[in-house]
Description:
Helices cover 57% and strands 16% of the residues.
Amino acid sequence: MKSTVVFRVVEFIFRIIGLIVFSYAGVSFGGWLAGLFELPGSTEVYLYRWLFFLLGGLGGFILTPYFTTRPARAIRIKLGHLSAETLFAGLVGLIVGLLTAALLSFPFSQLPNPFGQILPFIGVIAFSYLGISLFVMRQGDIMGLFSALSGRSEGGSSSSWTNLNRTILLDTSVIIDGRVADIAKTGFLPGTLLIPRFVLNELQYIADSPDGLRRQRGRRGMEVLAELQKLPNILVRISDINAEGVREVDDKLVVLARQLKCPILTNDFNLNRVAELQGVTILNINELANAVKSVVLPSEHMTLNIFQEGKEFGQGVGYMDDGTMVVVENGHDYIGEYKEVVVTKVLQTAAGRMIFARVEDENGKKKK
Length: 368
């Protein structure tokens, strides 16, 4: 909202400048046109001057933004959709192209006219375009080269260039979830966590909700963001980048992810499906949590604390160290005790991993 107001003020200032400049140009053009027609009286001359004064002022007030502020805003929006890696590669390519054109400008200028006057200018444009195009197309290889050189200069340590320039988009649900802060502390999320302004606005809207539970979730998300910004091993960037013509937050995230060629970190099932259908990479925290859980096989033994009843008759429930629930089929009589159990079945569901086990008696047999 603030940037829109500033843009309108700047546009209005340019309109006034255009009105003044074009009005003066209109007066001069009207006088020149009256002299061209050799009008006999001064009244006709003044009429021509006033007519083109009004036409010039009106045209300047209406048309000035179309070749000043609006093209500049369009360029700014386009640059905002580019990743830092692409911008850096384009800048390096522009510098290389200009240096090449400067080296060739002297030989070109020695050619006979008109080639000696035209070719240096054409060389600047052509080599600048070729430099930008080449470096942007091969930006991955160039960043990898910088990464390797940086790694050698640090005595063989792993370079952080590629990681620092890896952008990951965060959605609202994963911020509210809170586990992203714990994962970031471990160093498994290298790079830049990009939070668009519209995600932050949605989070603030949830934090200001009249519903107590939603308000608590929103405030928790704000605390998670503050915690992420304090971590030394990760960069959190809040950006005004936006997706034009899209209203829904999830749709904006998918569009931005495609434009920036970066993944989305989420635990939203619907966003996961929609993004995958459009070819966007998804980092799902729920899938990560399931992947790092301990792997157990049928007939495997473990010691478990059975501390509550199960849903079915005679069942007890315990939890492994990673939080995986284990249903002990005959564990009701051992609630509150540590017992050795044997795994009978492992089920992988959409909600996670379910493990079923039975208590063994003193003779090593499964208790009926």
